[in-house]
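Section 5.1 Outputs to date
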Amino acid sequence: MKTTAAVLRAVTGARPYTDSKPLRLEEVELGAPRAGELLIRVEAASVCHSDVSVVDGSRVRPLPMALGHEAAGVVEEVGPGVRDVKPGDHVVLTFVPSCGTCPECSSGRPALCTPGAAANGAGTLLHGPSLLRDGGGQVIHHHLGISGFARHAVVARESAVVIPADVPLQTAALFGCAVLTGAGAVLNTAAVRPGQSVAVFGLGGVGLASVMAANVAGAVTIVAVDPVEAKRRLALELGATHAFAPEEAESAVRDLTGGGAEVSFEAAGVPAVLEAAFRATRRGGTTVAMGLPHPSRTLTLPALAFAGLGQSLVGSYMGSSSPQRDIPRYLALWKKGRLPVDRLQSAALPLDRINEAFEALAAGAAVRQVLLPWAGPRR
């Protein structure tokens, strides 16, 4: 079938993206779902810093590529062998298609699925090569098994979580990455306990989801850190007890908590921010790294902090989540008003304004912008 997708053909560091227009909407050919796959009508796809990182080269991916990894939609067709999903089901798409049988999946860590990571790195799908072609027949790679900045996508069954039809798909899209990553880091990776102190460095969609989850977990002190004042104000509305600009954050966290936060979270993808979060963590505390820096970047930490002070630094990919388990749980919290994910949405835009959305995110002016592929008349 023919559909429309936003395609990146070359990495660009040129900003503003509104001028360089790295993403172009193209009519592409999308193959039918194979065994174990689904055809999705994408209804909403939100813009994440991981998308921007592909455009600026921080996350190296094979090109050309149809971008987008945080999306929700409606199943239009199921491939052979799929029996637990049917046309008409509403789904959230998740960016690690866990196979269920590799050592990581078998040990309860589906976010680290080895075949899923291999497929994502190659720009293919879990069950086979790319199904996308441009008008000249050239292969277009899939982005993290989804390629959600499009009107349609074919994904592995393992990339989709069926959700209730009464959940607005514009809200549901944010559960596929921002909520899974940020809330999962708090509730799964760190397992924050009632009464603990928490600091969150970086208040994009992931960091703000961490703030909300820390509130759900019962943290008594939640310190939010970001250079953008509007994001600090939003964090306070979402459950943070205090908010600071980066230059005053470390001393403020230590003063408020009597020596440092018991758990600090970094959601900026910048080594200097992770180092600051580590310094703001108390003796015996844990620092959780969620951001994705350029692979060439390195970290400098005092070696004595580990054995001498008992501090821990742990990584959290996709919030150490099991999407089939966690997304329904987080949606239940959203329905009860305990995870007000709707507040993360900065704007809803038609797909043809994608470069504008990328520029707003890169400039720090937005949290989560949702692109609507079918904005305007459907054909």
